[in-house]
Design brief:
The complex is a heterodimer of chains A (about 400) and B (about 475).
Chain A lengths: L2 E7 L3 H13 L5 E4 L12 H6 L12 H6 L2 E4 L4 E5 L4 E4 L4 E9 L3 E3 L18 H13 L2 E5 L3 H12 L3 E5 L12 H13 L3 E3 L4 E5 L3 E5 L4 E4 L1 E4 L3 E3 L15 E2 L11 E3 L4 E4 L6 E2 L4 H16 L13 E6 L2 E7 L8 E5 L4 E7 L2 E8 L5 H9 L8 H6 L1 H13 L1
Parallel strand pairs in A: 1-2, 1-6, 2-3, 6-17, 8-9, 8-14, 9-10, 16-18
Antiparallel strand pairs in A: 4-5, 5-6, 7-15, 11-12, 12-13, 18-19, 20-21, 21-24, 22-23, 23-24
Helix pairs in contact in A: 1-7, 8-10
Chain B lengths: L6 E4 L9 H10 L6 E4 L6 E4 L8 H5 L5 E3 L6 E3 L9 H5 L5 E4 L4 E4 L8 H5 L5 E4 L1 H8 L17 H13 L3 E4 L4 H7 L12 E2 L6 H14 L6 E7 H6 L2 H10 L4 E6 L39 H6 L5 E6 L3 H15 L4 E6 L3 H4 L6 H10 L6 E4 L3 E4 L9 H5 L10 H21 L36
Helix pairs in contact in B: 8-10
The structure holds flavin-adenine dinucleotide (FAD).
InterPro entries (chain B): 4Fe4S_Fe-S-bd, PadI, PorB-like, THDP-binding, TPP_enzyme_TPP-bd
Keywords (chain B): Oxidoreductase
Pfam family, one (chain B): TPP_enzyme_C
């Protein structure tokens, strides 16, 4: 029976950071990384660029076999975990193999959430989460003339842009009033929407799909309209991959419930990344914030805990971050960039769009369209709750320069 | 042994916001500048945003395309343009604005230190930007054998121990060492109980005869054909400037081929902190106490290295552990010169115990002693004369230095004025002597804040047009 002191399930951002954190304190403890995927590690975030051809399956791999050799970590592809026996400290794979562990990291990420739409299970549709998905979509895109995308979140919009740029006639259906809800306020979203419309993408906002039927896709909306397309992509959000934990005793709410050290309720089991339900920085409440920066941070904390690193710090809560490129343009947001209640929002809407959100003279959110800023610096100002009273005028007038100044001072 | 990396240092107090660094960077890189200078909190002050080549780089960790990677050979976080998909997540990872959007190409751009020769540093006219090569020194010498045993009993934070270990690492095994009475033998380099504390032949001569004894050793080695041996002293300031001076002077006058390193901690520190000829004016020592009548030493220190130049030595230099690159270069030249004639290196060594400095502040005191011109760095050869190796311009007022040190705590404004006047006088003299030599790099302009540069009262960014965002 194979065993590892450190068993990491998942091979993406969270698991890779845990590996790194563990190796900083424990260079020798046996380690294995199990993944359902057949490839070496890659990021789901890269997939739109695989679809567009900007990147390629050979260019996206984040680590090579030499890395795993150098880090004394056994990399096991095609290894889908199907159950966990927490008492025996053992994970069973789809092929029947059982791995024993001392410390387990649950980093199985998220998978597309498929909405309960009538007829959907009867048609062929695409999703975008794995390299195989991306290759499939790229191949299908070549033969298709039109597409319908369900969902105008990050994944949906990225894919819609890919499809439109490839010459397809694209419609996007979104229930909410605006695209990228949560990350951007209405004004910022409107700018993004206009760009899509300009590029021929038909945005159906505030619309629900009531039925889907074949042969390719006939999509019926709640207003009675019907969209016909050769290709259907479902991008209506994600849900944590927790099925394999059923019956294990590991507490699962919307995701795997973790404390500030990324520990689950079960001894010896940690969770990090898209699969984990940690807290939101602003509210302190449980939240799923499925982005790379949180996966990386949580993976690091989990790894430190697993290896007993005394420098581990508690998770301070996740901060939503979005760096979004569309048709060569830039939209950025961090923190409560769309907040309206109880905050002071300072907007600039001529030329580029900028929205600074403050609360008690402290930055809590920042968004911009067509005007890059140092997202990381603003994140630090938010996380450290830097009091901007002294330099508020300068900050509102020149947020980038003032932010750089503040961090430069902090550095010394 | 790990590797250490060189780094670009920014001294905000010297930056006058001229923006030359940004111009040079965008020229060198053909795009937006990778360094940005932004207005500071007070008018006329400036801060910077530049990649710090972090050891634990968040930009790399959040990159989904594998386009960023820290090179463990040179420490640079490299950016692979062909892998990058322009998603900008790296800008969310960086807390310093070290990787940002170059709007001319709508891609990210970051500092790569120009292959070890940063364009920004080269053009900085005030010395605010420095390329610190301590990493290279560590990589080159860190693995070399330490020629002293572990556990020398120097005080905590002892700078002299640092000097000894660095110097002998650099000089190597092919040497014969003399350490006259003082802290250096006292902490155990000559050994205990019949066992030596040094891994090369070490002598413990009298305080008075070190240079004479070394002359004899040198002549003997020459006679038996071992001209490759470095015959050297690691001596204190007392044994050099006072009791041992006649021997040093004689050996220098005869042109003996000896490397004489004076470790100057400004007094007899190991015997209870008595004053010496190099103890500066105003210093508290146990023989120049501070009380109702006396307020520390009433005479100025003699300038021993300057005295040595009058001996027409092959090489004379001053050095400080605050500027290691400079110290290492001077050791090179001093060793070389010691095969030709008398070679004299004077290394300043703040003493945490005798001067009342926290151990953690010793190196800062070293740097400030140089930056305030209290101990200017220069070198002299008998053919090229004297040359500054660190600019004496833009010096801090002497108060910045003395306030770090307990032995000056009692100084009255009059005494401070006296010290400042003497420091100025000495720099003026050195400048006269160095008039024919090429000036050291950088620092030819007034630092920010010393005078009011035009437009200083405006809090507007000085150069929004070349700030990257
Ligand atoms: C198209 C797209 C665009 C995105 N854009 C952005 C963006 O711009 N910015 C951003 O911050 N984030 C973005 N994200 C989200 C980001 O990719 C995720 O937050 C991040 O990948 C989470 O990392 P993770 O390690 O938690 O999990 P995942 O990346 O989901 O990886 C999960 C890993 O677990 C493995 N696995 C799953 N189930 C099992 C099992 N049962 N047994 C064994 N292994 C298993 C998988 O093979 C995979 O290796 C995007 C995601 C997508 C899909």
């Amino acid at each position: 029976m194979p065993e590892a002191k450190y068993l990491l399930v998942g091979s993406s951002h969270a698991a890779l950071e845990a590996l790194r954190a563990i190796r900083l304190v424990d260079p020798d403890g046996s380690m294995a990384m199990l993944t359902k995927d057949e490839r070496l590690p890659y990021s789901p975030t890269i997939l739109p660029y695989v679809v567009s051809g900007r990147s390629g399956p050979d260019k996206v791999l984040l680590r090579d076999p030499a890395f795993f050799a150098a880090n004394a970590c056994t990399y096991v592809p095609n290894a889908q975990a199907v159950s966990l026996d927490a008492k025996a400290r053992a994970v069973t794979l789809a092929n029947g193999e059982v791995w024993r562990y001392q410390s387990l990291l649950v980093a199985s990420g998220a998978q597309p959430a498929i909405p309960p739409v009538k007829g959907l299970d009867g048609v062929t549709y695409h999703v975008l989460r794995t390299l195989a998905d991306a290759e499939g979509l790229r191949a299908a895109m070549g033969a298709a003339k039109s597409a319908v995308v369900l969902g105008a979140g990050l994944v949906g919009l990225h894919a819609a842009e890919n499809l439109a740029e490839a010459g397809l006639k694209v419609s996007v259906v979104e229930m909410q009033d605006h695209v990228l809800p949560g990350y951007f306020d209405a004004k910022a979203s409107t700018r993004i929407e206009e760009a899509f419309t300009k590029h021929g993408v038909d945005l159906k906002l505030r619309r629900k799909v009531v039925e889907v039927s074949g042969p390719a896709a006939r999509v019926t909306l709640d207003d009675g309209n019907v969209l016909e397309a050769d290709l259907l992509l479902v991008a209506t959000g994600v849900r944590p991959v927790t099925d394999w934990l059923e019956g294990s005793g590991v507490a699962v709410d919307k995701g795997v419930v973790v404390d500030e050290a990324m520990r689950t309720n079960i001894d010896g089991v940690w969770a990090a990344g898209d699969v984990a339900q940690a807290t939101d920085f602003a509210s302190g409440k449980p939240a799923l914030i499925g982005i790379i920066p949180t996966a990386v941070e949580q993976g690091k904390i989990a790894g430190q805990g697993m290896a007993g690193d005394s420098y581990r710090k508690d998770y301070a809560g996740g901060l939503p971050v979005n760096t979004y490129r569309f048709f060569g343009r830039v939209a950025l947001s961090i923190g409560r960039a769309a907040a309206t209640e109880g905050v002071e929002a300072v907007e600039t809407d001529s030329g580029a769009y900028r929205r600074l959100v403050l609360e008690g003279n402290r930055l809590v959110g920042y968004a911009s369209v067509d005007e890059p800023f140092d997202v990381g610096i603003m994140g630090e100002l938010i996380r450290r709750r830097i009091d901007l009273t002294e330099c508020k005028d300068a900050f509102l007038a020149w947020p980038v320069e003032t932010g750089r100044r503040l961090m430069s001072e902090q550095w010394r | 042994m790990g590797v250490a990396f060189d780094s670009i240092g920014f001294k905000a107090s010297l930056c006058d916001g001229c923006g030359d660094c940004m111009t040079a960077c965008s020229k060198a890189k053909g795009g937006a500048s990778r360094i940005s200078i932004v207005p500071g909190a007070k008018a006329g002050t400036f801060e910077t945003a530049i990649c710090r080549q972090c050891g634990d780089p968040k930009c790399v960790q959040v990159c989904p395309s594998g386009a960023l990677d820290k090179d463990n050979g040179n420490g640079i976080i490299g950016w692979d343009a062909s892998k990058c998909v322009d998603c900008l997540l790296c800008t969310a990872g960086c807390a310093y604005g070290g990787i940002a959007v170059d709007e001319t190409v709508a891609r990210v751009a970051k500092c790569d230190q120009c292959d070890g020769d940063p364009a920004c540093v080269k053009v900085c006219p005030t010395g605010a930007l420095e390329f610190r090569k301590a990493g290279t020194i560590f990589n080159e010498y860190g693995g070399k054998e330490d020629l002293f045993v572990p556990g020398l009993s120097g005080c905590q934070g002892c700078n002299s121990e640092l000097i000894m270990r660095h110097a002998m690492r650099k000089i190597g095994r092919n040497s014969v060492l003399a350490t006259p009475p003082g802290c250096i033998p006292g902490m155990g380099s000559v050994g205990y109980n019949g066992k030596t504390g040094t891994k090369v032949p070490v002598f413990h001569p009298l305080l008075t005869n070190t240079a004479s004894m070394l002359s004899g050793i040198r002549r003997y080695y020459d006679r038996i054909g071992r001209k490759d041996i470095v015959v050297m002293a690691l001596a204190g300031d007392g044994g050099t400037s006072d009791c041992g001076f006649h021997a040093v002077s004689g050996a220098a006058e005869r042109g003996e081929k000896v490397l004489y390193v004076c470790v100057d901690n400004e007094g007899y520190m190991n015997t209870g902190m008595q004053r010496s000829g190099t103890t500066p004016y105003g210093s508290w020592t146990s023989t120049t106490p501070v009380g109702e009548h006396m307020k520390g030493k009433t005479q100025d220190a003699k300038n021993l290295p300057l005295i040595m130049t009058a001996h027409k030595c092959r090489y004379v230099a001053t050095a400080s552990t605050g500027y290691m690159e400079d110290l290492y270069e001077k050791l090179d030249r001093a060793i070389e010169a010691s095969f030709e004639g008398f070679s004299y290196l004077h290394i300043y060594s703040p003493c945490p115990t005798g001067w009342r400095i926290p151990a953690s502040k010793v190196i800062e005191a070293c740097r400030m002693s140089v930056d305030s011109n209290f101990n200017p760095l220069w070198e002299y050869t008998n053919t090229r004369g004297l040359r500054f190796t660190h600019s004496p311009d833009n010096a801090y007022p002497i108060t910045e230095y003395v306030k770090m040190i307990g032995k000056y705590r009692h100084l009255s404004p009059d005494q401070l004025a006296h010290i400042q006047a003497k420091v100025d006088e000495q720099v003026a003299l050195l400048k006269l002597m160095a008039a024919e030599s090429p000036p050291p790099q950088a620092a030819h302009r007034a630092p920010a804040g010393s005078s009011t540069p035009a437009g200083a009262e405006s809090s507007q960014p000085a150069r929004r047009e070349i700030a990257r965002n």
